[in-house]
Amino acid sequence: MNSLIRNTARCLRSGAAVYIPRQADGRVWTSSARFLCAAADIQKALGDIVQKDKVVVFMKGTPAQPMCGFSNAVVQILRMHGVDDYASYNVLEDSELREAPNVTLVKMTSLDWNAAFSNQHNNKDNFFGVKAFSNWPTIPQVYFSGEFVGGCDILLQMHQNGDMVEELKKLGISSSLLEAEKESK
Amino acid sequence: MAITADHIRDKLTKELAAVHVDVEDTSPNRCAASYKVLVVSSQFEGKSLLQRHRLVNTCLAEELKEIHAFEQKTLTPEQWEKQKAQ
Hints:
Chain A: GO terms for molecular function: 2 iron, 2 sulfur cluster binding; metal ion binding. Chain A: Keywords: 2Fe-2S, Iron, Iron-sulfur, Metal-binding, Redox-active center. Chain A: InterPro entries: Glutaredoxin, GRX_PICOT-like, Monothiol_GRX-rel, Thioredoxin-like_sf. Chain A: This is Glutaredoxin domain-containing protein. Chain A is of the alpha+beta class and 185 residues long. Chain A has a single domain (2-184), classed as Glutaredoxin, CATH 3.40.30.10. Chain A has 8 helices and 4 strands. In chain A, helix 3 (69-80) links the parallel strand 1 (55-59) and strand 2 (87-90). The radius of gyration of chain A is 19 Å and the shape is elongated. Residues 7-29, 94-111 and 119-127 of chain A have low confidence and may be disordered. The termini of chain B are far apart. In chain B, a hairpin with an 8-residue loop joins strand 1 (18-25) and strand 2. Chain B has helices at 5-15, 49-59, 61-64, 77-85, and strands spanning 18-25, 34-41, 69-75. Chain B is an alpha+beta fold and 86 residues long. The A-B interface holds A 70, 123-124, 126, 135-138, 148-154, 157-158 and B 49-50, 53-54, 57, 61, 64-73.
C-alpha cells in the first residue's frame, strides 16, 4: 500500500492534470486511475522492448561493466556462446533522473525508462517496472524473442545441460560452443 | 522483521510439500539479505525450470521483497537421488 501511495504521489508530482472531486473516495479513485495508466504505459513499453531484439537482457550495469555477480554471470554465459549482439538495459542507469519532477508518463521517452527501471532500486516498490512485467523478483532477466527465459540460475542450468545451444538455434543463432565442438571432431 | 533461513525452510516445506530443503544465507555477514536454496519436491515433476522457479518465487513472494539476492535450485525427488549418488 505504501508503494501505491508513493507512486501515486510521484505521478501527481509529474504534472498530471488531476481532477479533485469533493468526496474523498472519488479523489482516491482519480489518482489511482492515473497511476494505473502510467503503470500500464510502462508495461506496454516493456512489451515493445522485449519484442524489438532477439535477445534482451535487463541487468545491473552494462555488458562491459556488470555491477553485480549475477548480471556478470549472464553476460559471461552469453559470451561463451558467442552471443555478442543483444540488447541490454541497465536498471541502475541514471538514478538521478529517478526523482525527476517533470517526468510525464503519458508517452514513453528515455526518461520514462528510468522511471520504469528505477523502481528496481527498491525491492518493496515493484508495482511497475520490469520485475512486475516479468513477474520475476530479481535482476538479471533474459528474454529470447519476446519470451521470458529466466534469471541467472536458469541461464546457468541451461548452459550446463545443453538447452542453451538448442534455444539459441531456435533464434537462428549458432552457439560458438557448438562450432568449437564441430571443429574438434 | 528479518527473514530467517528456518522461516524459508518451513514455508517451502509446507507450501510446496518439499521433501528436502537446503537454505543458505549467502550474504557476507549473514545479514539475511541474500539466500541460496535447494528445494526438492514432487510438485516439480513435469514442469520446466521456469515453472519450478516461479512456484518457489510465488511461495516466497512476501519474503523476496526483503531479500536482495536469491539463488535457487529446484529438483524432483528422482533428480535429487541421482545427484546424491554422483
